[in-house]
Amino acid sequence: MKTLSHWIGGKPVEGTSGNFGPVYNPATGAQEKQVPFASVDEVDTAVATAKEAFRTWGTSSLAKRTAVLFKYRELVDAHREEIARLITAEHGKVHSDALGEVARGLEIVELACGISEKLKGELSTQVSTRVDVSSIRQSLGVVAGITPFNFPAMVPMWMFPIAIACGNTFVLKPSEKVPSAAFKLAELAAEAGLPDGVLNIVNGDKTAVDRILAHPDIAAVSFVGSTPIAKYIHATGTANGKRVQALGGAKNHMLVLPDADLELAADSAINAAYGSAGERCMAISVVVAVGDTADPLIEKIKERAAALTIGPGDDPASEMGPLITKVHRDKVASYVTGAAAQGATVAIDGTGFTVEGHEDGHWIGVSLLDNVTPEMDCYRDEIFGPVLSVVRVETYDEAIALMNNSPWGNGTAIFTRDGGAARRFQLEVEAGMVGVNVPIPVPVGYHSFGGWKDSLFGDHHIYGNDGVHFYTRGKVVTTRWPDPSDGGINLGFPSNS
Ligand code: NAD
Hints:
It is built from 16 helices and 23 strands. It is α/β, with parallel strands linked by helices. The protein has 2 domains: 2-248 and 455-477, Aldehyde Dehydrogenase, Chain A, domain 1 (3-Layer(aba) Sandwich), CATH 3.40.605; 252-436, 3-Layer(aba) Sandwich (Aldehyde Dehydrogenase, Chain A, domain 2), CATH 3.40.309. A 7-stranded mixed β-sheet has the order 15-16-17-14-13-19-20, sandwiched between helices. A 6-stranded mixed β-sheet has the order 10-9-8-11-12-22, sandwiched between helices. Helix 10 links the parallel strand 13 (252-256) and strand 14 (284-290). Helix 1 packs across helix 8 and helix 10 crosses helix 11. Bound molecules: nicotinamide-adenine-dinucleotide. Residues 146-151, 155, 173, 175-176, 205-206, 209, 224-226, 229, 247-250, 281, 382, 384, 410, 451, 455 line the site of nicotinamide-adenine-dinucleotide.
């Protein structure tokens, strides 16, 4: 069995705590690797290394930083296949899906290549006689990222490229379930010429996370993961004086109006509910079918679901892979059986599915639940598996009331041909990301990503302009180059003239 390492000071560092976590291949169920869990001392070493590196990286020129980032962009681009294979081996998602996440992560590296444009300050001349004012943004110091299992490469890339482009140094704590893709990204950064200690990785569990949250030399923490942990990270990090952005879980609704293109809506529901086996924070998990749309839409979804190929992520024929762990697989299955017991109609039951020759893999087929109501567990909880619920409502108003009653507000979508209804929806729905006939509206890298309500704790969305703001702080400089006529005693509050 392979033993993985931390990445500190530009090189692999063996774990010394004696604690390890298992890394499985979800398609076979076999534990193929173990990952070291960092102790408090090991986190402290990584932070001290990052702090030392900040002394030079924090004052390095924009030209130098962007030169590294441009080279990094080329290296990640050239290693897309290898990174995607690492993702599939530990997460289980199919290769094409893994390639998609690398591509979306690369968008943020590309944004970071243009950081000099984003860090251009503002200057106002002659705000008062012979007085100029400039606003600049400066890096924070050492910042940290804590990331979830479902996007082993993309979510770390939502964070560190912008953070380091802004002049910070970074300590990443990736998900202990999928550590290898992030490790590869750090190796490539070193190859691109990123100075040692600017990007560090500590693997680990709650011990490492809690040390990050308490460490006095960490200025800011970006977190992406489930809502209860996001809430905890935000409360603890801010109580310790840190800037925190903590993105949480979701329950994304797709509203289908009677005038929608039902073929497109059915395709979109399938792709967004079952892609990556539903293990996406932007997955559609509820279809809200208005009026008489439910019956024809369900028929179309059933036809498409029957044709899906589920299998190992490294088999090019597979469209959906296994779930991350056996425990998670059983939990997802329990929602399907529970929904039936609570009165939902199980239109498709995927719980008995397995793959011949891979019986120990974490398999589940796709499930479709009809006649779901808001009090059912399958509606209330984030299932994070390939389970799509259909809620039937009579009107748009009933639909929007249901959706806005959800504690989450990550992504949402409306399917309609009515521009007026779509416009109303954009303005009325309480969610951070809205799709109009687009089921997974993940913003491009130069916009920002983030939800509302229990899907995000903190004031900043992630990447885009919000990312640049999160990883920098403002400074305003007021300058006078004196003239002999200036000066004199005046105890009044400074006013401009
Ligand atoms: P998770 O919350 O279990 O873990 C996320 C990170 O927190 C991991 O690095 C993990 O080691 C750490 N962690 C776990 N328990 C902890 C604890 N008790 N104390 C301190 N740290 C802890 O999430 P996950 O299962 O890895 O990922 C899936 C979740 O992430 C889903 O809820 C999904 O919706 C959410 N997610 C959200 C977004 C978003 O952008 N809003 C994106 C991807 C995933």
